[in-house]
């Protein structure tokens, strides 16, 4: 079976996330997609996050209606909220692969904004060895941008990528040590930051969120500032 792993902060999960996963599900015939909220994301430690249970609850609500979408506790804190250990994707993927069959094919789903930072992640070469990538592209990014985001040891020489600077990021990039598939323009102009700001400003959230997630935020008072 083709299996997708989609990690994020999901603070909160929004329609951009589900649009990406639905597109990947269709294009790559993914039988299951695991949504993995990070307890402590290595790159987002500057602001306080909503608690892991709240973010997981919203992921569970937003994925309830798609048979193939599975909310995952792979990065749940092992010792309640006391854990301070960041979650690294390479460790998560290795652990997850132990639960898969030999015949399963694992795809790591990611948006292009996050992918551009991939070279700064822990042991990115190992992560590329463990699974194939599906990167959700968006207008304005070229195939060369995708290739240039790879860790240095996997990155093609500038003379190779230069001709691709004007080519939109689509198709597949198959290199020694890395396979990257591009999903075209599934990027919605939404981010969790915008959702949190809209809640704080008392603005409507209608089109950004699954209705059940919207209700959860309303009921629990998440992201509201002031009294
Ligand atoms: P924040 O605004 O708090 O930084 P975010 O909206 O980027 O959050 P994350 O949970 O950090 O959400 O993202 C998880 C994954 O989803 C990342 O790979 C990111 O690139 C991707 N992603 C986020 N928003 C979109 C979007 N609108 N369309 C497609 N992919 C997205």
What key attributes describe this structure?
globular; binds adenosine-5'-triphosphate; alpha/beta; Rossmann fold; 227 residues; single chain
Structure write-up:
The protein is α/β, with parallel strands linked by helices and 227 residues long. The protein has one domain (2-220): Rossmann fold. The chain contains 9 helices and 7 strands, in the order E-H-E-H-E-H-E-H-H-E-H-H-E-E-H-H. It has a 7-stranded mixed beta sheet with strand order 3-2-1-4-5-7-6, sandwiched between helices. Helix 2 links the parallel strand 2 and strand 3 (69-71). Helix 2 (52-63) runs antiparallel to helix 9. The protein starts with a strand and ends in a 7-residue tail after the last helix. The mean pLDDT is 91.
Q: What percent of residues adopt helix (DSSP H or I)?
A: 25-40%
Give the number of domains.
1
Q: What percent of residues are in strands?
A: 15-25%
Shape: globular
Rg calc: 18 Å
Which architecture per CATH? 3-Layer(aba) Sandwich
- What is the total tally of β strands? 7
Order of adjacent strands in the largest pleated sheet:
3-2-1-4-5-7-6
As residue ranges, the low-confidence spans are: none
User: What is the name of the CATH class?
Assistant: Alpha Beta
Outline of this structure?
With 227 residues, this protein is an alpha/beta fold. It has nine helices and seven strands, in the order βαβαβαβααβααββαα.
């Amino acid at each position: 079976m083709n299996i997708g792993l989609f990690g994020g902060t999901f603070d909160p999960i929004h329609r951009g996330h589900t649009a990406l996963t639905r597109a990947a599900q269709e294009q790559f015939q993914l039988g299951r997609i695991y949504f993995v909220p990070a307890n402590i994301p290595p790159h987002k430690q500057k602001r306080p996050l909503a608690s892991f249970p709240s973010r997981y609850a919203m992921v569970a609500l937003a994925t309830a209606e798609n048979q193939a979408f599975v909310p995952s506790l792979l990065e749940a804190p092992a010792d309640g909220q006391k854990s301070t250990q960041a979650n690294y994707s390479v460790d998560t993927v290795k652990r997850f692969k132990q639960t898969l069959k030999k015949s399963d094919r694992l795809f790591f789903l990611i948006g292009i904004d996050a992918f551009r930072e991939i070279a700064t992640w822990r042991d990115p070469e190992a992560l590329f060895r463990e699974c194939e990538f599906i990167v959700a592209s968006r207008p304005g990014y070229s195939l060369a941008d995708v290739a240039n985001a790879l860790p240095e040891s996997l990155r093609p020489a500038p003379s190779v990528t230069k001709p691709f600077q004007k080519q939109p990021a689509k198709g597949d990039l198959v290199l020694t040590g890395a396979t990257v598939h591009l999903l075209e323009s599934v990027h919605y102009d939404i981010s969790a930051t915008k959702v949190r700001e809209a809640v704080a400003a008392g603005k409507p959230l209608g089109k950004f969120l699954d209705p059940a997630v919207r209700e959860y935020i309303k009921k629990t008072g998440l992201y509201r500032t002031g009294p």
